[in-house]
Amino acid sequence: MRFLLRSAWKDLRRRLADPVALGIWIGLPVMLGFLIGLANGGGDATPTARVLLVNQDDSDFTALVVGALARGGFRDEVLIDFEEVDLETGEERIADGDGTVLLILPADFGRALLEAEPVTVTLITNPAETILPAIVVEGLEIVREGAFYAERILGEPLRAIAAGPGAGLDAFDAVTVARIAVQINDRVVAASRLLDPPIIELDLGEDDEATAADEPADPARTLIGFLLPGMLLMSLLFIAQGMSDDVWTEKENGTLRRAFWAPRPLMVFVAGKLLAGLAIIALVSAIAVTGAAFWLDLELARVPLAVVWCAYAGAGLFGLFLLVAMLASSHRTANLVTMMILFPMMMIGGSFVPLEFLPEGMRAIGAWTPNGIALIQLRDMVFGTPEPRSFAVAALVLAAVGALSLWLCVLRARRFATA
Q1: What's the pTM?
Q2: Are β-strands 122-125 and 101-105 bridged in parallel, bridged antiparallel, or unpaired?
């Protein structure tokens, strides 16, 4: 036991002697969260999509459509800010990145809508933005569908209104006004059979509608809360990969050879490395999870379990990377191979891109990677309640990965130390 603790303390002292690496490991989740918070306007700001609108059609109907778009936006969570500009100004500004999209309505836009004829609307997106242009495009798709069905229902009376009262007349006569009003009323009544009562109803619960505005925002639905588990697992992966490199440093310094000839089982020496890695991982996890709890106003009672889970998962990841490093033929090869494993694991395991955004096949694979399994359970611990069965399966999988890696490391250690 004393040899185990001394071996672990040796590794910890060597890590403490390198404060830059330790600071990077500790600060990585904090730094990523801070940068994402800045990119999101501090976490509470509503993202705004700036639409530069070039209206080349001077018809009254197009002016009505543009006014409805500018007043309504598409959804409460994202503000759509319309700004009318001329074509030259719009092209220059979107080329300079000053705007989310450039929307160009052609000269015959209003007439084509009324006549149900094909019309081409030009939309140029800002390549520096990804999410907001996609939201604008989806919103315009909804508007397009709405315009299609509006024409099917009210096309005839709208065309009559757009045509005007006729040559030499300043206003519609009473008969024409009555005929158009009757047409509109008949078509609205016919359509209302499909709209009232609505075919699909959303039941929010008995008291949800009255209290929804007073409830605090769900931290899991914020951008930082959504990405937090992935960022923390990314940090643990970097720690596991970085500390696995230490075994080659000890081999080159002759420490492993001396440990091999020492009157102690070599397994204790390997276990000491695992214990030191566990301490570092627990320290980083405690700082990151506690900071996130204060930042996102989470329940502090969730912190201990989340820290223990991160340390548990991190130990398994460290054992896996340690095994890969010991199987390599040289120090440089070990660095290369572990990095080749690190980045794909982060990519499909939900650290770079949340699992929900991955294609179905990659999502199924990522959910069964060691870091993907740990991420899913960590999210439930921080923002919800872990499901006992899935938690038990995840714990067994990570235990199997860690135990198998440690056993293979011990088998490899003898040959590795004397080679």
Answers
A1: 0.58
A2: antiparallel
